[in-house]
Amino acid sequence: MWGLSVVVLCWSGIVCEGSDIDPGHFTTVHQKDQELLRLQNQVSQLYTALWASRDQIRELRSDLEKLYLNANDRKLERSFVAIDRRANLDVNTFFNEYAFKGKPVIITDYQPILSKKTKWDLKHFEALCGSEYVTPLRYDPTAKVWGRLVETESCTLRDYLQYYSHHDSYGTDTAPTDFLYLHDWHLPIYCPEALTDFIVPKYFSGDLLQRIPKEMDGEPLSYVDEWPSLFVGPKNSQSAMHVDSFGSNFWMYLIEGRKKWNIFSKSDLSYLYEDRATKTFEYDPFNYNLLKTPLAAKATVYECILEPGEILFVPAVSPHAVFNLEDSIAMSMNYVDASNYNLVIEELSRLERTGDQISGFIAKALRALSSKESQYQDLSWSDFKKRGR
Ligand SMILES: O=C(O)CCC(=O)C(=O)O
Ligand SMILES: [Fe+2]
């Protein structure tokens, strides 16, 4: 009671003489309480708005479905486009016909990525980093997470590769959820030795992401040292439909096996029944029912079966799903260059507004680099990492 009356007195500007309690202290406590209340109110208002917008999206989607289905008794069929396969592709053509247009492409004749000095097989990774830990992922169609991939128990790379070479993808009672998928294992973090002979192809060597400082204001910046990464997927493992994070572009080099890709344009995103809050999609291009997701029939499916030795370019914000038709090994990079720079800045700034300080730092670092020259030529891993920061 006593404390309260002092607080009240001090609030009303009356000097708390005779008390050994610093009046400024109560003012600060009071301001903090007010601030807390204000933020709590803001959060609950935003939640209300969020639920209301989700309902609104559902209603609009259902109106759109009715319109679409009523318009000339449309048959629910998907339309496919084969992803271009290009050989002898020069950098300018790559940018003008694909990267700037947000169109995927397969580069069929580009071997320099993996220097001939190293045999890029699992033995290479195992010999150098067999005792490093990996956390394989497992596809779970009910999981409300990015790619519907959930983490499993960590084990050493050696143990995982042991599993990989003995697993049974062919048994009739093997459920799709049984496969352990080594997914996006960040080589510069866990196995930098494996990259000594790695070559970054000219199409992607303008990556700004790996030129930003490793830290800012004492905080380590994510993404700088994450790619290339390694994928080892047993036959029948898969990544469900997702959009790669922070507006990044993506490329993958397939070392072994065959992978089926379904890729959609950014402009078709609203037909794919996305749940942005959980980063999942109700529409599954490999197991779909168009009666349940009719708008998906409006989206063009860019499809390919990626073959060993090929490089696939996936543009930023293009939803995609991937199915391993065979045991497969691949290396990939997410990256930022002139073709997706604006998208990335927009996305990082949005993340910063949600309280993600690191994203704000990355955006700042990318802005500082944007006026610097980029080289578009094959770069050895060490030259790539040495480019001017
Ligand atoms: O190869 C895969 O399973 C999917 C790779 C991918 O799309 C990703 O890591 O974002
Ligand atoms: Fe992806």
Folded structure, characterized:
- With 389 residues, the chain is an alpha+beta fold.
- The protein has a domain at 79-210 and 226-341: Cupin (Jelly Rolls, Sandwich), CATH 2.60.120.650.
- It has helices spanning 2-11, 23-70, 91-99, 122-129, 157-166, 187-190, 341-353, 357-369, 381-386, and strands at 79-82, 84-86, 105-107, 133-134, 137-139, 149-151, 155-156, 180-186, 199-200, 215-216, 219-220, 229-233, 238-242, 249-256, 259-263, 274-275, 280-281, 300-306, 311-314, 320-324, 328-335, 379-380.
- Strands 2-3-19-14-21-12-8-5-6 form a nine-stranded mixed β-sheet.
- A hairpin with a 4-residue loop joins strand 16 (274-275) and strand 17 (280-281).
- The radius of gyration is 26 Å and the shape is globular.
- Mean pLDDT is 89; it is low at 1-18.
- 2-oxoglutaric acid binds next to strand 20.
